[in-house]
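FAQ
Q: What does a multi-component entry look like?
A: The components come first, one per line:
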Amino acid sequence: MLAEMLSYDFMQRAFIGGIIVCLLCSFLSFFVVLKRLSFIGVGISHSALGGLALGVMTGINPFLSAGIFSTLISWAIGITSKKGKVHEDVTIGIFFSAAMAFGVVLISLSSGYKADLFSLLFGNILAITVEDLWMLAGCGLAVGLFLFLLFKELLAMSFDEEIARIGGLPVEFLYYGLLTAMAVTVVASIKVVGVILVEALLVIPAATGLQLSRNYRWMLFFSLLTGLLSVLSGLFLSYAYDLPSGATIVLCAAVFFGLAFLFSPSKGIVTKRFRH
Amino acid sequence: MMDISTSSAPAIELEGVRVSYNGVNVLENISLTVEPGSFVGIIGPNGAGKTTLLKVILGLQPLAAGEVRLFGLKPSAVLKKKKYVGYVPQKSLLDRDLPFSVMDVILMGRVGSIGPLKWFGKKDLAEAENNLRRVELLDYADRPIGELSGGQMQRVLIARALSCGNPRILILDEPTVGVDIPHQLDFYELLAKLQKEMGLTILVVTHEVAIISKYADRMVCLNRTMHLHCNPAELMHYHGHEEMSRCEFEQLFGTGEGQSDAG
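Then the predicted structure of the entire assembly, as C-alpha cells:
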C-alpha cells in the first residue's frame, strides 16, 4: 500500500511538505518548551486566521498577509506581556480571540471563501502545490538557519534570560526573533495542519523529548524524531483509513507523548512504579 | 587592552548616582569607591534599592544622574566586551527541571564571551572545569541539575558566574536566602577563598548582618541613599553590637517606606 500511496503526485508533495513542517515545528518546539512559550504559540497561531482573511479581502497573497499579521501580533503579545501591567496569559487571551474573531467576521463578509474556512482551521495537506512546497522550503530554510546559527545564544536566553543579558547577549533580539520564527512557522504550517492544530506541533515534540531525556541534546533529538514519526505515521493512517490528515498527525504526536509520559525510562509514571 | 592588574583605577566607582522610576527617586546621591580585591556587604531594608544598585553596577539600569565606572570603564562597555563581572542571582529563580547538566549550566554562563557562530571549544571546557574545581564540584560535571542539593546548586551558580569570561568582580544578590547557618558559613568561606585566590572584588547584598560583617572588608548601608560606607567594626560600633543582631532593619534605619525590591 505504501508504494501505491507514494505513486500519487499529491501524496509525494504531502509527504515532503509534512516532513518539512514537522521537522521545523519540532526544532522550534524545543525552544517553545524550554522558554515556556506554548501559550504565546496559541496566540500567534490563532491570530493567523485574521491575517489570512485580511489577505483574502484585500487581494494580497493570504499567506504573506498572514505572515505579517501574525508576526505583528506576536510582537504585540511580547511587548504587552514584558512591559505592560497586564499578565501575559490575559494579554494572549485577548489578542488571540480578538484576532480570530476579526478573521471570522472578514471571512463571513467575503462570499465564496467560506468553504475553505475548514481547511484553514484544520489543514488540507493533500492540496499542497509545488508552489507551496517552495514557500515551505524558503520559510524552513530561514527559520532553520536562525535557530541553527544562534543555537547557543537562544539556548542561553531560554535557560536563564537574566544571566544571558548580563553576559552581554542581545536578549530582546533573540526573544523577538524567536517569536517571529514562531509566526513564520505557523503560517508555513497552515496547509499541513491548519491554524488550530499547529500549536500541537509547537509543543508536543519537545514535551515528548523532555519526558525521554535529562540532557537538552537528547531532548532535541527525540523532539525531531517525534515530529518525524508523527507526520509519517499520521499521513499513512490518514491515507489508509481515510481520516483528516492534519488531525491524524496531531493525534499520532499526542500518542507518542502519552507513551513517553507513561514509559519513559527516567521519568515515566509506569516505569517509576515498577522500579519501586 | 588596558592591563587592569597594574591599573590604579578602583574596581567600582559611583559618583552622585541617581535612579528614578516614573519620577520617583529610587536611589539618590550614591557615591562609592570599591578597591580591587575587597569584599563588600550591602545591607538595607526591603525596598532600599539594593537590587537597583546592583543593576546600576551591572550596566543594566539607566541613570538619571551621576557616573559609574568599573576599572575606569563604563559598565555597558564591560558588559558587552570585557566580561569582568560575574553575577549570582537568588538560587530559587532557576527552573531545576530543565534538562541541563552542571557543565551545561556553567557553559551557558559563558555564551556571551564566546561570540557568534562558534560552539564551545576546548578552552571553554577547560575554564568551566577550572571553576568547577574551585567550588569543589568537579565530580558533578555531568549530573543533571535536578539532582543537586540547594547548597550544591548555589556553588554551581558561583562557578557559572566565574565563567563569565574575565572575572574580576563577583556580584551576589541575596545568595543565602533560606539557607541554614552552617551552610551560610560554608558559602561565605568559599567566597573568601575565591577573593584571596583570584583577587576578586566581591559584592554581596544580604540581610544576614551578623554573618556578612564577619567576612566583609567594607559595609554599605543603603536606604534609597547611602547611610554608611564603613568597615564592619564601625558598623557594630555605630549601632551597637547587640542591637544589630536583634533588631529589624526598619527599627535601625527608620521605617523603610516601601518600594518593592523587584525594581
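Q: Is there any commentary attached?
A: Sometimes. For this entry: Residues 131 and 159 of chain B are 5 Å apart (CA to CA).
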